[in-house]
Amino acid sequence: MATVIDGKAVAQIIRSEIADEVRLLSQKYGKVPGLAVVIVGNRKDSQSYVGMKRKACAELGIKSFDVDLPEQVSQAELIKQVHELNVNPDVHGILVQLPLPKHINEEKVLTEISLEKDVDGFHPLNIGKLAMKGRDPLFLPCTPKACIELLQRSGVSIKGKKAVVVGRSNIVGLPASLLLLKADATVTIVHSHTSQPESIIHEADIVIAAAGQPMMIKGNWIKPGAAVIDVGTNAVDDPTKKSGYRLVGDVDFEEASKVAGWITPVPGGVGPMTVTMLLKNTVEGAKRYIEQNN
Ligand SMILES: NC(=O)C1=CN([C@@H]2O[C@H](COP(=O)(O)OP(=O)(O)OC[C@H]3O[C@@H](n4cnc5c(N)ncnc54)[C@H](OP(=O)(O)O)[C@@H]3O)[C@@H](O)[C@H]2O)C=CC1
Ligand SMILES: Nc1nc(=O)c2c([nH]1)NC[C@@H]1CN(c3ccc(C(=O)N[C@@H](CCC(=O)O)C(=O)O)cc3)C=[N+]21
Fold first, then answer.
1. Whole-prediction pTM
2. 100 and 160: one domain?
3. Whose CA is nearest to atom 19 of ligand 2?
4. Same domain, yes or no: 208 and 97
5. pLDDT tens digit string along 109-152?
6. Are 58 and 148 found together in one domain?
7. Residue 99: which domain range?
8. Can you give the residue ranges of the Tetrahydrofolate dehydrogenase/cyclohydrolase catalytic domain (predicted)?
9. ipTM of the predicted structure?
10. Segment 79-100, tens digit of pLDDT
11. Cβ contacts of residue 158 below 8 Å, gap of 6+?
């Protein structure tokens, strides 16, 4: 049976380390880190994620700046709001919750975020640096960073290993594969046009699943002993639940946990660590900003 990696527990440990850093900053400079969370419209999932981020900030003594804009807001107005946050000295991190409504060009908006405040690591220049040898972006994207941190804290070595990433989105799959490459894994990316994904995944010592396809990866696709990090967070109907749904990953947990060496559950795996990495990036950004401007 696989070791189940408890993302919630690891996240708690890191959060208490971050809380210490926040206290130190405030003792030394009398300043608190600030994170601006911008949300457009009222998608239920986005509201729920943003709520988690704001709550986590409050718990750690990070000040959150809430910018809630209506679904119909123009791209120009959204960019104006980002510019105001860029010059606000109390804001050290800016996150624009994705996806944005269809009439807004996501890349245009992300490009406007000040590089020093891009705590999501989604600015094209930060992603570009991630792809270059010998260059490091100011911030690493939170979910891919969470995946690597979970592997490292579980004692899984990455160097020289065969890693397969399922998915190639700008926010998860692609940056996760670049981080694995930086950590000296041999990386293969599986996407929706890949034929026979099961045979490719079966070669992997490390699997990062981020396809958004409920329980797509079966137990017999996994190489015995492999480390399986399941990013997928999919709501499926469940009439036995009060909410009417439950969350499942991209991996069939019950089957895969009998074959893998390590596995993350959903919920309670990558999700809580993603939020924690955002807080970590924010405090790092604040520290850099405060020390430079003091
Ligand atoms: N826990 C967390 O912290 C987070 C969880 N998530 C979750 O992770 C999942 C992925 O998110 P995100 O990257 O934003 O999703 P996207 O929909 O943007 O990307 C999905 C990727 O998976 C690929 N894909 C889709 N179907 C298949 C398939 N059958 N076989 C192989 N590849 C496939 C797509 O390929 P192609 O490029 O060819 O279309 C695409 O590259 C979702 O469940 C999301 O909810 C996301 C962010 C954070
Ligand atoms: N600019 C931007 N940055 C993001 O980081 C970003 C985004 N946009 N858009 C959407 C995705 C999704 N995402 C998640 C964060 C936390 C959980 C999480 O904490 N999940 C809990 C469960 C939550 C629940 O119970 O609903 C868990 O897996 O245990 C999941 C998903 C960040 N994203």
1. 0.97
2. no
3. 271
4. no
5. 999 999 999 999 999 999 999 999 999 999 999 999 999 999 99
6. no
7. 30-114
8. 5-120
9. 0.98
10. 999 999 999 999 999 999 999 9
11. 148, 151, 152, 180, 183, 184, 185, 206
Residue 56 makes CB contacts below 8 A (sequence gap 6+) with 15, 275, 276, 278, 279
Q: Are residues 190 and 108 in the same domain?
A: no
Residue closest to 116 by CA, chosen among 125, 105, 107, 128:
125
Tell me which residues are annotated as active site. 53, 97, 120
Atom of ligand 2 nearest to the CA of 8: 29
Is residue 290 in some structural domain?
A: no
Ligand 1 pocket mutation, candidates 127, 150, 231, criterion most atoms within 8 A of CB: 231
> Is ligand 1 within 6 A of the CB of residue 53?
no
68: tokens are 């809630």
Cα(198) to centroid of ligand 1, in Å? 17
Ligand 1 atom closest to 216 (CA): 29
Report the domain count for the chain: 2
- Please tell me the distance between residue 30's alpha carbon and the centre of ligand 2 in angstroms: 31
